[in-house]
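chain below, 240 aa
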Amino acid sequence: MDKFRKFLIVLCGVLLFYVILVAMRSGFSNTLLLFSGAFLALSVYTIFFETLRKWRWLNYLIVISAVVYVSVGVFALIYGQQDSVTFQEEVAIVLGAGLRDGQPSATLRSRLETAVDYHLQNPNAFIVVSGGIGRSEVVSEADVMAAFLESRGVPTDLIIREGNSHSTYENMRLSRPLVKGNPSIVVITNEFHIYRGTRFARMVGFDDITSFHASTPAYAIMGSLIREVAAIFKMWVLGN
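prediction:
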């Protein structure tokens, strides 16, 4: 067995691990379909490697696709780390990221901690918390997010809840009517998510947009980037 095939087998193992992890943590979801599809495709390629390696056009296509996918992921990661926040914005919009047993997931908690940091530096800004009720949840992310911020000293009258969205595009589309006029806003989310978040903010009519990123937990960055790149391609093709 050559080294490349061994590498493919290891990669299949990693993808299978993520399929099981996502199934246990989130149940049936688009993320689970994405990882399952990638695992099945890579498994088929690995099993029939000796035959498929002779199809040079297929190998070129796989390599080019992988390079493009990784490049977009690196772009999103670098883009999101370039904070443009001024701490003078009128409204902060914090994007949801799922609950675990009714509490913020590690990724969502990092966004909320960043929102608290923002509030300490700009205590007069309104904070929109955006996130609906997920498949396995009984309360909206917005309610849990608001409770977290209140527990950390953010005044209730500064928190605006948007509890009906189920995607990043909906986060922005449904948050837009909740703020009057055309205020300056800062988008608060994880670094890998800043690009789409700010793009969608502009799509729904916000003009003065800055960003303030939360750092993603190390164990979650790979899975988050794989999902995010697929979502970026979807945004480029479908617009949402």
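Residues 56-80 form the longest helix (25 residues). Strands lie at 91-95, 99-100, 103-104, 126-130, 159-162, 185-190, 209-214.
thats it, cya
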